[in-house]
């Protein structure tokens, strides 16, 4: 049973079922923290409003500070936090199991069914608020009205909540009242066949204590003590106004009215017609005289049938084009014939790649298998990219069109990007502006603290103080912001560069024609002790600060970091080193986003690292690392070594603006030594000069350009090659151009 002294960690807290539950529990007085690698800003807002503590990073070592871990069924059992929780002996509950525990102390009104649960629950929640009826609610989605919360706690014994059947947790519930909307075959991955799904619903009906609210035509025969009431047409009988919004919503309205009437209090006649709707349920994203763009969550053939019927009714004179994203390989395999039959009712169909939802690719469940199931006009295949947007726009430009983005995966991001792109058109017939589109797309999706700029100068963000501007520039405030930015770059086909403290970097005079992301907010500078000589350091943390933190905590082995002018992310990317030590000497594990955009948390042994390179991270984005001290020592002793290294650096390195060592050391020799031997120190081009203090530094004396530095690099290389045969390779990153391009000989 629940204990309000316990601490609850929600893994996958941003899920549409998880977030409202976390909000309700926090409002009820429980200590709730949330973690989600894909947290949408609209969801973050409600979690924040409910005082749910949000964590950008959770480590297995930290899990033991919680008592119960609640997780979404979409989270794989191999997730590091779940593994850590099991090892720590914590209680693990799926979302449905947690809700069932809550319901044991409440009079639960369970809203169940294969389709329509969220809309109907939303209607009920709206009715409770509109008519001032005393009951709590927990939804499985968000209102289109952004001022209405997806969960509400009050002291009433009554609780209205969606009960999901997909993962079998429906077996945990014994409601006071059960509202059943429908039962259609689904979730073959869990139930195997329709009989087992029917049995799960029948069991719930039998366990219902007081009343069953059912449609007139219902194929299951309830048993048990609960009385039965049918709800067809009840809204009209109660005198509630209804809008002609489609057959399915009429059914949902009757079902909601049946629940609201249960409270035996007067209902306002406009209760249903004032319902604002739920997000991603026929939501209009863009509209002009020629084109209406909507998105809808429909991901079952029955839902698609109802959606197409409704859209045909709404705008019968327009052609209907559907962009569909199949959800899960297992569901695609199960329903490909039914999906094809339903979708063929549209005038044209575009298929997106299957949204896997952690499933492995399944034979018979790929998008090509779905395409092959079409018997009439063949569908088009579409990629979620700017190229896909252009393909769609070209296809519909000449005809009045309803364009529906349909599915339960990440299609909403593509739909939103397309709508933003359309809004960015400067005039009819002109190509949309990407500069305007990316702002329109991002502003509602990132946190208010996320900085977004266009044509941002980069010179002052580098240690050499050289370079042009970034076409797009952002400073994410948290990990969720970063994910949104990366997705925007993918959708709009922007080139991407992540910037730390700007050392080891030369920006082209032409700037960077893409998105520059800089890790400068406090969330990216976190340094946390994990105990036993271990430190978590976020990507934006200064190496000098890591060194100081370690010294204060008596952790030796980090002293070499003191004089490296960069941040953790860059140091991980290139295995930065000094004083005979390297970054990966102190690395235990690294969290990063790989080249495919997937989050990874891997031990040191999983990486191929060497001199000035870490293969896996160089193709991805480092988020931070767990660093480990080999030995403990006194702070005084550690600081003595730090001071020694610092003095050595001050004596051997120039004080002016530079990018650090400009060349890699060639095998068997040192770049600085070769430059010194052949009298190259002091060579200059414009205001860029080979340092007289250390030959492997190029110093900007003020006003130097990237072209000056590049020409100077060319001259140094040519001189060293002519004198020694060594070919010096640049260590400094060139952004906006490539060294291969500018150093071609």
What would you note in describing this structure?
There is one protein chain. Helix 11 links the parallel strand 15 (319-325) and strand 16. With 745 residues, the protein is α/β, with parallel strands linked by helices. The mean pLDDT is 86. Helix 1 packs parallel to helix 2 (41-49) and helix 10 runs parallel beside helix 11 (329-343). The protein has 6 domains: 1-95, Rossmann fold, CATH 3.40.50; 106-278, Mur-like, catalytic domain (UDP-N-acetylmuramoyl-L-alanine:D-glutamate ligase, 3-Layer(aba) Sandwich), CATH 3.40.1190; 283-435, Alpha-Beta Complex (Protein-Tyrosine Phosphatase, Chain A), CATH 3.90.190.20; 446-518, Uridine Diphospho-n-acetylenolpyruvylglucosamine Reductase, domain 2; 526-643, Uridine Diphospho-n-acetylenolpyruvylglucosamine Reductase, domain 3 (2-Layer Sandwich), CATH 3.30.465; 660-742, Alpha-Beta Complex (Uridine Diphospho-n-acetylenolpyruvylglucosamine Reductase, domain 1).
Give short descriptive properties of this protein:
7-stranded mixed sheet, elongated, 32% helix, UDP-N-acetylmuramoyl-L-alanine:D-glutamate ligase, 6 domains, Rossmann fold, Protein-Tyrosine Phosphatase, Chain A, alpha/beta, 745 residues, 23 helices, 6-stranded mixed sheet
Number of helices: 23
What is the CA-atom radius of gyration, in angstroms?
30 Å
* CATH fold label of the largest domain: UDP-N-acetylmuramoyl-L-alanine:D-glutamate ligase
Task: Report the portion of residues in β strands.
Answer: 15-25%
Q: Give the biggest sheet.
A: 7 strands, mixed
Describe the global form: elongated
